[in-house]
Amino acid sequence: MPITNLATATTLDETLLNQALALSPEQKLRLVKEVMQSELNANANEQKQFIETLDATLTELRLAKTPPPAPNGKPPWQKRHAKDMLSLKWAREHRKEYGGQWVALDGSRLIAATTDILELKAAIEADGTHLPLIKFIEPADAPPFLF
Amino acid sequence: MAELSFDVVQRYDSEDGIEIPLLLFCGGKETKATAYVDCGASDCVFSNETGLLLGLQIETGEPKNFSPASGGTLATYGHLVTLEFYGIAFESIVYFAKYPGLQRNLLGRNGWLRKLFFGLVESVNTVYLSPLR
After folding, report:
1. B1 CA to chain A: closest CA distance, Å?
2. Which of A23, A133, A147, B117 gets the most CB atoms within 10 Å of its CB?
3. pLDDT of residue A65
């Protein structure tokens, strides 16, 4: 490509980029969806590069949005983890009663137990607990697991 | 002697495997589940039920069949989700079973182990983790 055309192309790229950055959140979302749809139709090599770049960008975004440590210096995940450990302990202790069922637990409080996952989802919504731990309790007499 | 340092040291219950509580995020939805570390699994394979709780249209994902050690074939669909555990978060392709009934979610090499520095001392039920930087 001649230098003048290359310069024109670069200017055009910049113009398009600036226009894209100036879009409303809804328009940006639509643009992202369109680009992703187009990439889904691309060949495998191009797609791989796109997915890797997207993966890295999303991870960066997500980490940037990770909340700062709580004022007491203990990160929020450690508090969540302490509650999750109570849930796992409860699940171990109640394996005989609830083996073969899905359970939703808020710490050591049982929200619901059922074999029907949609029923469990409805029970969680009715209870109103945010992000309970959901786990399948393997039957107490089940042989050791091997995938 | 080689020395390693990790951001996170956690003990786990040794009764039935290395079970890790984790949050899954995808498309603005989230759910909390548990998954087992499985160095013998090539990828992260989660139950159909976990995918439904995350609000996924499972069969819209990338199809992939797995051959479990116990024989047969496990049909799955891959989705890009965010996994968060012990304060570590990253995006991964997780394969969700086509059919209900998979009793455990598995954290395999691709999508999990390869995104971490991971240490294990099974005799004292302890895992050591840092995100890959």
Report:
1. 32
2. A133
3. 58
